[in-house]
Amino acid sequence: MAPGPEREGMSDAETTIDEGARDFIREIIRADVEAGRTDTVVTRFPPEPNGYLHIGHAKSMCLNFGVAREFGGRCHLRFDDTNPVKEEHEFIDSIAEDVRWLGFDWGEHLYFASDHFETLYLWAEHLIRAGKAYVDDLSPDEIRDYRGTLTEPGRNSPWRDRPSGESLDLFRRMRAGEFPDAARVLRAKIDMASGNINLRDPVIYRILHASHPRSGDAWCIYPTYDFAHGQSDAIEGVTHSLCTLEFEDHRPLYDWLLDNLPAPTRPRQYEFARLNLAYTVLSKRRLTELVQDGRVRGWDDPRMPTIAGLRRRGVPPAAIRDFVGRIGVAKADNLVEAALLEHCIRELLNRTAERRMAVLRPLKVIIENYAEGATEELEAVNNPEDAAAGTRGVPFSREIYIERDDFMEDPPSKFFRLAPGREVRLRYAYFITCREAVRNDAGEVVALRCTYDPATRGGDAPDGRKVKATLHWVSAAHAAPAEVRLYDHLFTRPDPGAGGDIADDLNPDSLTVLQDCRLEPALSDARVGEPIQFERQGYFCLDPDSTPGRPVFNRTVALRDTWAKIQKKGAPGGGGQKQ
Ligand code: ATP
Ligand code: MG
To answer: Which of 27, 206, 481, 571 is buried most, with the most CB atoms less than 10 Å from its CB?
Structure first.
């Protein structure tokens, strides 16, 4: 294999959290620290436990945990569990596992918004007493109707000016469970004419007679996201509350609440652009639909952009951190090429993954001049990028398998692999020459008769003759059967759903299952999740679906690097030359 472009610009696997990252968030924090406004930098990663984490969350984690580490502060893991209807223990457990797997550590600082429910409740009473919140009896539809639109101001609810004593009494009775769901809400009293709809008396508590995964039936009123989030930040002493751009319009509310509450600390919110990745969706609602509709095999289906899916597919956490480091943090929305993620995976695995031989679509080769029943062991290099990985023995015998695609009976001029009369090299073994294709009754090629040159063992021909191709192979008698799963993008367009119904954009060929693959014997030692390069095919890893005698491998990524090509085309003067 020619040294590919994936070898350029290597960075060390251990330092993929970029300590030297510079972006507007880090500039703000640096300035706060230098001016003495911030003593210890405290950030938080605040997932809502209503689904599995995806690679968009990895961006948020790398930023929050990364900043905390760089500034010698700390990052909290906080479950934003204010909506009991959609939240489950399964999600809490998977999120904690995924955060840890990505290499982040919250130490003792694990929180749940639900830990703060009592304080939040008392703060809601505080607002009522101060005349800054009121219980509203309007129905959800009426509230929507009164809210106005982007161009029209809202109207005051008839309950807006009810005495605070009355609101306090009703709020306590809401808590006591006297009213059914949605009968009443608590609203902050801000400004129904505000240009910012979030300030038009936002709902801060609602009635929900639902059991909560952690607080059980202790509560039948729950704070809204807006009321829980900033207040949890303040309770925990978060200094910089980093969130995605869709919360920019919520920032005035975030500030208003903290300005009007007896909060012990004063966090500030900053917004950055969320990650959008081509050919996939990064919205928990959409991902939940894919799982529920059976479009994928589960949250950890290797086609999913979830952390669990990427892990099962064989993507190392360092490749995800590297990817996130390269895309950076900015305020402009954009769509990141899927090829960049693949490039980061390849670059890391090229250095770390051991090489093995596996034939995915086998074609038998009979080497007629090789002694029947003989076996020899050839020496194969485990990783040309890492001498310390050593070598292994690979058995060779008279019958081997090669890749079906590596033979053509009537090859076009650019096809240099095996064809009748053509000589090629078998990796680590011999030169072989194809003498004849064997056909079945249907006329299909089922085997090749070849001869080998014993003088070429593990090297070149003594007479200096050259071959133009090197093929991987496995010894038929020694090979183990296996299933291999190849993955492609889940969607056929980079912006799924943009053309109408997202279901129409699902890629029907996102999964290809190959049932009749053959592995070299050393692959029987493979461990689930451990990355391995199948020579000339890509990077693979053992799937947990494997059973004794029936290994299943996932292709993490193919070898061909489309990102390097995209870059080359885009580079000034790089006009698509061949390498
Ligand atoms: P979704 O839009 O998928 O439902 P979410 O924002 O509701 O995501 P949360 O669990 O609330 O999911 O997210 C936890 C944190 O991760 C939040 O701070 C959120 O802003 C951030 N986050 C979510 N999606 C992305 C993304 N695509 N890119 C960067 N950060 C993200
Ligand atoms: Mg959210």
So the answer is: 206
